[in-house]
Amino acid sequence: MPAIIVLARTMIVADGYVIWRLDSRTSRWQIAASWGISDEFARRIISSYHGRPVSSVRFDEPLVARSA
User: Can you list the positions of beta strands (E) in 1-68?
Assistant: First the structure.
């Protein structure tokens, strides 16, 4: 299991964990590492979001994820 997934599992309680990676050459997001998700989801490649091309995500500040 990749160290980033191990770290995530020790810090955040969740049913599954995914590390996404943007391929800047093809402008597609794909899963680089995962745990606890279906094989079908793990094979996903995202090339658009709501009909718009995907891009990188800036992390100038902490990214806060709240429970629903």
Answer: 17-23, 28-35, 45-46, 48-49, 52-53
